[in-house]
Every structure is written in structure tokens, then in C-alpha cells.
## 1
Amino acid sequence: MSRPRPPQAARRGRDRRAFMLAPPPGAPRVSRSRPPTTAVVGAGIAGLAAATALAERGVRVTLYEREAFLGGRVAGWPISLSDGTTATMSRGFHAFFRQYYNLRGLLRRTDPGLRRLAGLPDYPLQHSGGLRDSFRNVPRTPPWSALGFVAQSPTFTLRDLARMNPLAALPLLDVRVPDVYEQLDTVSAHDFLHSIRFPEAAHHLAFEVFSRSFFADPRQLSAAEMVLMFHIYFLGSAEGLLFDVPDEPFPQALWNPLGDYLQQHEADIRLSTAVTTVTPTQDGGFVVDATDQQRHDTVVLALDTGGLQSIVSSSPHLADTAWRQRVARLRTAPPFLVSRLWLDQPVAADRPGFLGTSGYGTLDNVSVLDRWEGDASRWATRTGGSVVELHAYALPEHSTREVEQKRLLTQLHTVYPETRTASVVDERHEWRSDCPLFPVAGYAERPTTRTSRPGLVIAGDLVRTDLPVALMERAATSGFMAANALLETWNVHGQTLWTVPRRGRSALLRILAAPGNLRSRRH
């Protein structure tokens, strides 16, 4: 059987300053006479990226996933609605920004033109006080992107701008990794914005929306992570501030085709198979204990925080004590709630596909899925209704699911008053608490891709990459990095990676933001 050839470099988009990270030179494939074997534990974005890069180069990959479907936290699964129709449920909306070079490169394996992604024309940010920001007409190239946003935003007045502390804001002008963590990891995102004297309304709209995409309260989130997000989207990249979304549910648009692609490369995909322990062997390999025990030459652990901690605690001989202790100290973000409602009436025609919200209690955003997703659109067309999804991030630890579900519905009625007269035909609620937390002063504790045990690597958005990536892109990038680390030991050429520029774009602004100059201005 002929197999598609793997792309050696993901397309970088429109930004000519995007940074390319080339792997060491090597052979195109592993030895055909005795190909090494790798267990990839976890079939989320990170595990799928690692499995893809390895299988493409001839490694015998076994992909273990405890759920019955691929995709991890971006998965979807079939459900039956009360009206007798079928639908696909998920853990909620995800934005595929155009800066996500490595994730998009992974998706291009089965969709070279990314035709299964549709661009949203805008994603407004709305405050309960009446202020509303938009990204529709913001320029894509820095610094005009940030300046254009400020010029068009009602949340920035001349008085607000005059009150801001420009010296405190200088770190925003030249973001580098890992330097940004050395500068700001000991400060919370909330305190950093306070030091800048950022306008309160803009604080809620422009920055809190981004910080809460980490499923964390800004008071708990490292300022370095928020400033890195500012670099990725506002001042570091020329890809713009808009994003794409899959035009069908995640399984159909993304993961089922990628699963077929992996099987074309002879990967063994084992769904509904939970790995309990990983035991090193005397010959340098590993025994993976799932429904059976199977030996592999190498292992990629691509798990969420709880899953990684569970396997490590159950595998006492896996890596050294210091590494195991670092894994044990990892934390998860507060719980979040996703409520999806099938309504018997449509929302107003001018409602956007995605709306970020602030000041509406626990409601963080509203998605009207039938604006772009085929599954929801077909249901809405057939019934005359609409499919609406509500998100509440970083809920207080004492929150209860039933109370928060009612609150979200009440808040929807405030944001979109026409929904007050709609009946809920069906509803699904996902209450989760499994996203990684990036706390203040936590960067040094985060594990990197490589471990103290040869042949054992880890991947996921919890991993420290020392690259300007975040969220889904960090997961994809770390998966490819894990694969590259193993391929390098076999002298095989790995996956080329791309990131947004790894420093500020303006030489003048970089000089102003230099640590020495910053210190001199403070004194």
C-alpha cells in the first residue's frame, strides 16, 4: 500500500518573520529491517502529533486512548437528542487561530487546504455595562494591530491612556521565551495589569478574556503566560486576530480522518484502552500495562495532568525521584462548565457565531453553533430553532453543577433577551476540572519534553516547551517535539516546527524594553 509522504515543514502562513525550528539532519526513515516501537499514551492533540510524526517515519506506533474516541479535550462523541435525532457533543468551542502553525500542519495531513476550517468574520467582546469591542477591522500586522484595536475600542479613552504606566508596560514590547518567565512568572496576570494601570473596562474585555482561556482566574495565572498571549496575538505575529473553526463536529472534521491517516501508516490505535502503569525493562525498553502487557522500545506520555500523575504514581521505577516529584506538584485549573442548549426558536439574526462576555456573572462566552457547524446548522434548519453553547471558566471550587447550569441560562437571557421565550428542546452539560494550571511562580516546576529516563518523553499543553506557543498549539508543538526527541536518538530527521517570532518585531521597542534600560528608567 502506498502511503502519503509526510510534509517536512508546516506552512507558516502570511507572516514572513515566523520562526522555523529545523530538527537535526538524519535519515528520512528508521530501519525497515527492525523498526523501533513506541507506545503513545493519550490520543489528544499532543499524542496525535507525536504518533503522526513517528508513524510517518516508519516507527511502529501503538496509540493508547482510554476514551472511545480521538481528540482528548477537543474530542466529540455521538449523542441522541430527545426529538429522536443524533448529534455530536464535545467539551465546547475551540478557536483555531492562524498562528497555530504546527497544529494546522498536523491537520493538513488529511486536509491540505484546510477546507474543513471556516473563518469567523468577527468575535466581539461585550461588557455588561454596554461597551463592546470588535476585531473585524483591526489590521493584522503589528504594531498596527494593537494600535488599531486601541483606536477602535470604546474601552480606551484619552484619559485612560494618559493614566497608564508605560514603564510597567515595556515587557509587552519584547517578549522572548524563556526570558518572559524570568521577568514575570512571580507576578499574577491581575497584578501586572494593575501595575500598568490598564483601563478597567479594557482589562475585563481585552485581557481577562484571554487569561480565562487558560481556564484560570487572572489572580491565579502567571503574568508571563498572559504576556506571552499578548505577544502571540497582538504584537508578535502578523497573522491577525481572527480565527477559524471546524465546519463539522471535531470527529468528522479533524480526528477521524487523522485516525485513518495513522492507520495507513500502520499505527495500531487502541481506543477504550486505559494504561495503568509503565515499567522500565532491563534492556532499556518499557512494558505498558493496559488490557495486556506489551513491551515497547520507547514511550510518549501525552496525558492531562491527572492522567500523567496517575501513571507516574503507579509506576515507581519510572524516571528519577526529582522528576516524579515535579510531576506530583503539577496543578489543575479550577472547574469549568460547558452548557449546550438546543432551543426551539432561533436567536436574532445579527448574533455573532462567538461572543466573549464580561460582567455577566460566571458567563464567559456564548457560541451560536448553527452559524458555522454543519451538525448544528442542519438541526436548526430542520426545526427552526438554534443551538447555543455557554461557557463558564474558572468557577469557584465550592460551585455546584446544578446551580451554575441555572445561572448560565439566566445570563444567556440577559445577553440575548430573545431566548427568554425559547424552550429548551434538549441540553447537555460538561463539568470538568482537568486543564493544567499555570500558577504564579510555577514555570520552573513544569516538566520539559525530555525526562531523566532515556526513551521516555512527555507531551501536552502542560509541558514546558521554551517556545512562544500556547493552548492547542502548545499541545501540538510538544507532541512533535517529543517525537523529534526520539527520532534524534535513531538519527532520523524529525518534524520541522514553526512559531510566531521569538522576539519583539521592532528594534526600537526592543531597545526600550531591554532589562538594563528598564531598570535604569525605574531608578
## 2
Amino acid sequence: MSDARYATEISGSMSSRSLSEISEVETFRLSVNLVSAARRNIGFLRTVAESQWLHESPIVIVEAIRRYEELWMPLISDLTVQSKTPPLVLPPLDIEWVWFCHSLNPVNYRKYCASRFSKLIGKPAIFDEENEDYALMRCGEIWERRYPSESFENEIDSDLEDPVDIVTNEDLLFEVKKQRNLCKKFSVPYMNEIVYLIAAKQRYKGFLFLLQRSTDGCSPLVPTLDILLMWITHQSYPTVYAEDLKEMEGDIWSLVSVGELVNKKEVEETQKLWDRAFEQPYEKAGAELALDFDGVASVNPPVHWAVSDVDVNTKYKAMTPRFLLEVCLSVRLSSRMKAMHEDIKCNFLCLKMVRCHRELKMENLISDICLDSWQKAWHLCGEFGTRGLMLELRHRGGGFFKRCKLLDTATFLWNDLLRAPSLALAREVGDQVRIVASITPPVQAPYLLKCVPDRVTDDSGAMISDVILRMNRYRPQEGRWLSRTVLDHAGRECFVVRIRVGGGLWRRGDETPSAVKWEDRIIEIREGSWSYVADSIGRAPDICAFFCHLVQQKW
């Protein structure tokens, strides 16, 4: 069957219903909480990536595979006999990593379990740290009774030579090596947000719905990054995965697996099928189809996301937290515009933020937009404080001044997008262009600080001024300090930095301060804002709020 005919049949069987309707009503039941499981897997992958000992020597992985095959799988098989559900035990990190990688090849894992244990061995659904600690401790107790001569932790000497000749399962070694950098694909901080994972689960169910209605002879379907996260999470619970997808066992192999090479035709065909099924672009913010050297979807954000478990604002309350999000706008011409394509060459889309500098404008000509497919027009990183974005459809006129006429507008507010299904909303502008805006959940980002010059201050921290002099009943102000105000991204004063450069008194007149030696110059950083007494005249915050120290370098 040709790809075109296949796509047409898929389109006709779905009658263009929304993704939320299909994912909630017509798809099969998922027996595991994929949202909680995905959060747990992201944390697990980060732990594996941070465990350098697990990757620094090949012999460590070889030993982990031996422990997995000879010790762990027989143990968990015997424990599973006592109950239909997997027992609440978890192996040590090295074994769990091998087990996780093995489960990402369901065909190989199922054959392995059938040949060795005559049954499929599952994994317990444990999602919180307290239960994980209990499951690990319980496993350690059972392990010690069953294997008194085997250490529970992997204690192999990483300095030993690589024992290639004793590797008994080369396929499993290949699977583990293939997934070594899997954490990098899901390291962006917004992927751990609940709202992102809920949207990813909805799209994953829609993807399985698309796969369920596929027929033989089509190209393999390629998952986006969010769908890939849900897919490998589903696979990591083998018995659940097999039970949930038993009715489409023959179709599930039409998916591109992790690490499999992907060609352009497969990607384009998947995008077309998704568009025909849900009338939405397949790629969205946080769910791209960027392909790296081995053909696996990877993160390609517009900015570098800093990942940190520490928020400095918990200590320094003066700073306003900063939240960033990704936004992606996909556009296509309305079908009614095809006949008049020649008449819209002077029309263009202008993108603005709801709250931003007035000169921030980005334009895109309507004539450059595709007729029959979605086109990613903008992929940006924005501040949550900008509230949203606005698209204007304009017509560029002729004449000397080349004035532009506003034809229509469409506004996408961040709060509306966060409440929308799959974190995406669609609009139509001027009966000409269809627009779908999608975002990622806002996450706290690094702070942006700016230092601006301020007035000279005295030893007490008050600005040198006639106003201060009058308030002090004309008592002279002593000392000279250069002052700078530190502003955060919202323009809020959060620190006052001062450096002592001179001594002497100032009353009113031309008193000249005396310079201080370099070793006597003091830098103070005071947390908080100025206490203004008159317009821009004020006093610095109390010094006890922060610290001061001597410096040996020039300001």
C-alpha cells in the first residue's frame, strides 16, 4: 500500500477529533501512573549520569551484567512466584541500570525471560523516596541471606583489565552502552514538571491511537521527545507494558526504538499522519524531533537551561525569582487562501510580547508560509513576566511612507496556554493563517543582575546631599564611598555595593576628601534597597545584612 493511500485511510477513520477527546475516551487503559513513573525515571537517569564509577571503566558494567544475570534475575524470579504482582524490592544501582536498559528492548527482554524463567518478570511501581529506601533495604536483607558470599554493592576494582573474553551476553552489553547518554535527552528542567508530564501522557496516548489504526506497509512512526519519555517509561515496566499493548502486539513494532537510525521520510510521514489525525503540528515546544548523529530525538532548546537543586533566593529574599519558558509557533495557510495565494504577498505576521520593550518585533511574510504543512515560524525563550505574545496580521502598503495596515490580531497568554490541553492553543488570523502556539511550563532560571552607578555616600551609608545635611542639623558627613545599585531582571533594587575611596568631612562647599590607601579600601555589599528620604536621595540598607571585606585590587 502506498504511503499516500495509507495516510488517506488513516485520516478518514479519525474524523478530525481533538487530541484530548481521543486520548481520554477512545484509547486503551494504561495500568501504571506514567506521570509519577516518568518523574521517577528522570531522577533515576540523573543519578546514573552522576555516578561516574558506573561509566569510568568497562569492567564495572561487565560485572553489573554478571550480577544482573546470575544473581538478580533468579532472585526476583523466585520472589515473583509467591505473588502475581512484582514484590516491593529494588536492586542496587548498577543492577537496576542494566535491568532498565534491558527492558527498553521488549522483544529481547521477553525472549530472555521466557527462555530462562518461562514467564515475563515485571518491575514494582515505586515512585517515592521513602518506599524506594524501604524496597532497597528489604532487597539487601534478602540478598544477604541468599548470597552470603556476594556483596550487595558492586565492589569490582575498576583498575582491572577489560575482561572482554568473559562477556557472556554481548547483546545486553550493547543495550547498556547504547543508553549511556540517555539522561542528556531528558535533562531540561521543565521535563520534571507535572503539567508537562500530563501533556506528554496525553500525546503518548494519541500516538498509540495513531499506531493502533495503522496498517502494514507504512513507514515506522518516529516519537517526539515527550512521547519518547512516556514510551521508555512504559517499557520499563515490562509486565504492564505487555498487558496494556497486548491487543496491538503486532503494531507496536512499527515504532522507531531508542537508538535506531531514523531517515527523513519516516519523520515526514509521521508528521503528516499526526496532522491529518489531530489537525495540529506534530512538533511543539519541549517536544521536538531534532536528530543527532545516531538518529535519536534529542533536546535542542533555544537557550542553555541551567539545572540546579539549589535556589539562591531562599537565602537572599531581595531578588525577584525569574521564570523562563520555551514557546513555539507553528503556522500554515488556511485552505481557503490557496486560490488567492498571489494576492497575499504584501501581508506579513508581526510577533510582539504583551509586556516587553516596544521595539521587540519579529516579522514573517505570509508568502513564505507553506500551504499544505505546518511550518515552525518561531522558537523562542521568553520571560513568564511578559504575560504572553501577540500576533498581528498586517498589510504593507505602497507609497513613499510605506505605511502598514493592521488586518487582525491573535493573543496567546501564558496562563491560557498552561491550562490548555497538551499546552497548546490554535487561532486563525484574518481567515488567512492558522497558528498553533505551544509552551513549556515556566521553570526558575538563573538571575540577571545589572549594576548601575549611584550617588556618593558617607561612612554611615547616607548619600552626600544637602537634604541629608539638613536632616542631620548640618552635622558634617564624614567619608567618601563610591556606590553602585544592583538591579534584578525586574528592575528591582536588590543590593547596594559600596567602596571606600576617601576620608574627610563634607559640610557645604568645596571640601576636598583625602584619598585612602589601597589596602584600606573596603568593599561592602548590602542586601536590600535604598531607604529614600527625598526623591532619589536616601540611605543604604543596614550593613549587618550582608558582609564586608578588604580587597587588594582596584574598583
## 3
Amino acid sequence: MAIEKLFLSRTFLVGCVILLTQSPAVSAEGAFPGLVLRGLLETLGHPLKVTVMSCWGESDKLEVFKVLSERYLTCFVDDHISRFVEDINDHQTFLVVDLACPGTKQLLKSAGLLLFMKYRWLIVNSKFFVEDNPSEEDQVQFFEQSLADLSLLVSSEIFIFIKQSANNFSVNQIFKHFELAPFKVELFGLWIDGSFKDERNERVTSVRRLDLQGHTLQASMVVTNQETLQHLTDYKEKHIDTITKVNYILTNCLAAYMGAHVNYSVVSTWGYLNTTTGRWDGMIGELSQLRADLGASPLFFTADRVAVIEYVAMTSATRSKFIFRSPKLSFTENVFLLPFDDLVWMCIGGVVLLSSGLLVITGLAEWRVPLTVDDPADATILRPSFRDTLLVIYGATCQQGASILPRSFAARTITLIAFLVLMFLYGCYSANIVALLQSPSTKIRTLEDMLASRLKFGVHDTVFNRYYFTHASEPTRQAIYERKIRQPDGSQSFIALEQGVDKIRNGLYAFHVEQGVGYKVISETYQEDEKCGLQEVQYLQVIDPYYAIQKNSSFKEHVKIGLFRLNEHGIQFRENANLYTKKPKCTGGGGKFVPVSLVDTEPAILVIVWGAGLSATVFTAELIWWKVYRWFQDWKGSRVIRMVH
């Protein structure tokens, strides 16, 4: 369709004035009923600009201009065979053409899609205005014959004036339900004795014409498993092609609501752009190539698809996410540091240091008083050394006791209080450790957390999963694919549904799957305690899938209204609830007992390893120091002997 853009708004307005004053004096030999047009525009209420493409004389134009210019921007365009108007306010434009003028039919043919999109049209035959009593049948028949080869489809807003008497007109709309259908003439209003009477029973055009009278709509749906065709409406095998089954039922309800029939074609993919040929395949290919009116399997909203298909409404609240069982807390945290708050740890350190300092002070005082009952060489008596007292308090902290004790009553009182306080703290600490070792982690909430975790990854082997994972460009998602999905040997972790769900059960495994599909298998195969701790993280950067139709479809408003009604009446909710399984509730008492593994005790083992390494290092250093010292003493002694001799 080739349509020439004539002017932008301001330039076009100047051009209108010039054409109004310099147009050739071609008269239609009769006054155009401008008052009827104004009554129609006032009833519509929307158009702000009226463009008249005619061959009328200046007097006729001036009369129409006077009638409309008070409220509407009115422009007249001559020589309109190859000219057309399309500006930023095209949705508020009302176009008037005259079939009595040469070239009007060619203009209407060149309009193409704009006959049933964007614009409102008034198509008149000025010859009828000068006839005395033209019959309504002849006028209607003339319009039907003149417009027979045009696409005046069900969404069109085409008005015609039918002259009934000198001052009375009927305003009708003419349209077809589809290309090969006969014309329908619909009474819009009557102009009687200088006033316009609205005769519509429903103001919304698409609602008035909702009944498609048995027209067959072509629908394309995606089926990845041929068994799906045997279970489209019986709610069996709900986890296979779920989104298609939901929308197959909704499409049938939609067709019944619109009074139409549906003929389905089956494809194996939603449709992706072939960069080599520049063509779309699958369901999008059928919609873009006008082989299908409806896309009966909703698809995700992406920018590259907007140019070739029309998104209408969300019909399936489903999303694909990574599903995994929450790992034990010890997999993401050091559980030996979690029982106490930072302030409590600081207080414990303060108690240890304060107790050690007080013991040193009391020790210094008690060793100044000679006690004959004590043996100064007794190894069980605490000496006034900060190192020894710190070791005693550390042993109390770990509930290991002490091999040495102070000899005075004051010092022993300090030791007793320190042991008592640290005993209570140790009891709280131990109880918390037991609880934490059985607790799940909730730290993994984002893709970045998953990438940094020890989880292994798998993806449900579907067409759209393979496409989105292999075409990921965002850094984190690309890293997940490169480091977690694609294996070093070149293979990829795209696996079957049952296999992936079984790996989730064993833990430390994240499986990317459609939620409803995955939860159905989980509900049927997991024990009750195994359904606890399930977490989700979304990977795809898309919203819920949309129902799609052919681009520039004349049925767009019909489909939109029908789908909204299905939603409002609860039919959409019912079908989604019947076919999609929700996340199972945890009714297993929080899960079964989890045995302690090496991962849980890793911090304690690291303490042993580092402690043993530090001890070995200190021992080696002491041994070397002692040997060097002995060697130095021997060398010093031998030197003295040589000097004596």
C-alpha cells in the first residue's frame, strides 16, 4: 500500500487556506448538507479535524467551511487522486470524499488498511443531493456497487448519507464482516427537521457488530507433543503444553462469544526470526503472513515481535522460573557465628578479658601474702600471669574446665562467676547451633546469589527455553548460561521435566521450568516433607504471556472485548486454576531431620586445620630458635676457650 504523506499539521493548515481560495470552480451543482455533517460530528464527539477531499466549487466549500469552522479544523484538498493526509492527530480526523468526483475510487483503493483503521470516513454522492426524490434502495445499491471491491471490514467507520426528502436524511454505516461477506447497512442516526437523532442501540461500534454471523476464524496453536491433541479439553496430562490447553478452551469460548467458528492449524514453535531469510517461522510466521487470524498459544512480549503481530491481553498467569529446594543454612552462612548477635560476641570477649584482668590483679595481691600452708612449687596453683589466667578463662568459655585454680577466696569467686556466666552462654550457643544446622537458607534470592552459590543448574528442554538461554545478552544471565548450563564438553543441561524435578528433590539443584508444570509433577511425586523449602528465582526478563492476533486485524476490538469478558466472568480464572498447579503448601512439619555433613562442620574443621598448622609452625620456629641458640652458645663457648688458650 503506497500512501503519500502530504503535510505536517501547521504546513497542512496553510495549504488548506490556499486550496480554499485558489481551487478550481468545479461545482457539484447542489449544496452539500453541512448541517447534517455537523450533527453527525457532534454526536460522535471525537473528531477535531475534518478533511474534505472533493471537487466542489468554491461556494459549496465556503458554505461547509462556515458551518464547521466554529468548532472543527476544516481543510479542503483538491487533486486528491494521489494525495493523502496522515499526521500526528490521525485518530481524530474525519475524512469526507465524494464519489461524484473523478479519482475518488482510486483514492479509496489507495487508502487500504486505513479504511478500517484510525480514520472515520464519510462517503457521499453529491448527485443524489440535487435529485428530487431518489429512492433509498437506489442510493444504497449505488454505494454497495461502488464500494464492493474495498475492504470496509467490521472495524470500519464508514458513513453514508441517504436522502429521504429535501430536508431529511438518514445517516448509515456500511461494512462487511469479512472480505467475501455481503454488505451490512446499519442505521446510525436521522436528520429530521434540523435536528440529529441518534438511533444507535449501542454506542461502541465493535459491540454493535460483535456477532460475526458464523465467520470462520483461522487460529494457529503451538503443540510440542502430539499427545496434546488428544487431551485438549479433558484436563489430562496437564503438565504437557499447558499454556496451549488453557488458551484452546479460551479461544473456543471467545469464538462462541463472537458468533464465529474456529479452524485450527498446529505448529511446533511460537516463532523466531530467521536472520538468514528475514522471515518468521512458527505461529508468528502464520500470523505475519496472514494465514492465521488468532494466535491460540500466547507468547512472551518482546520488542522485535511488536512490528509483526498485535498483542491483545494476558490470558495465562504463568511464568518460567528456577525452582530449587532451599539449601541448608550452612551452605550459605557460617552457622558457628550466627547464634549470637555481634553485640553478644563483644560482651563475651569483654567478660573473658575482664575476668582475666581481675584474676591477674587478685593473683598479684595474694602472692604478696606468704601462706605457709601452700607449696610455692604446686603446679595446680594459678600464678599471677595474664597468659595463664587468659587460658583458664578460655577453657571456661569452651566448658573444658581448668587444671589450675587461684588460692585466695576473692580470686576463686571471680573464677566461679566467670564459669557460671559462660556456662549459660554455652548452653544458649549449643541449642542455637542444633537449630541452625536444621534450618534452610533464604539467602539465595537473585540470579547473582544463584550464580555465586554451589547450586547446579538444569533447564526444561523446550523451544523457548533453548532460545532465551542461548540468546541471553545481560551479563549475569549470560554467565549463568556459560558457567552453569553449558558443560565443558560442549553439551548443555537441557533435560526432561521428570528428570529435572527429581534432581530438585535431592537438593542443591535449580531447575528452570514453567511454574505450573513443575509444581504439578512436584505435587504428585514428592513426599509432604519434601515440599517444604521450595524457592523460586525468575530468569526470563519478560512479563506474563500475551494473546496475539494478526497485525492490523479488523477483529482486534472484538477479540479484546471478548477476552476481557472471559476474564471478568471468571472463565479465564477457572481454566487457569484447572490446568495450572499452584506451589504446594508445606504440611510436613517443616521437613525431616537432616544429618550433619562435612559442609556443616567445615568452619570447625578449618579451625582444627589452621590451629594444627599454626601449632606446627610455632613448634618449628621454636625448634629452629633452640637449635640456633644452642649453636650460638656452643660457638660462643668455643671462642672463649680459644681466647684462654
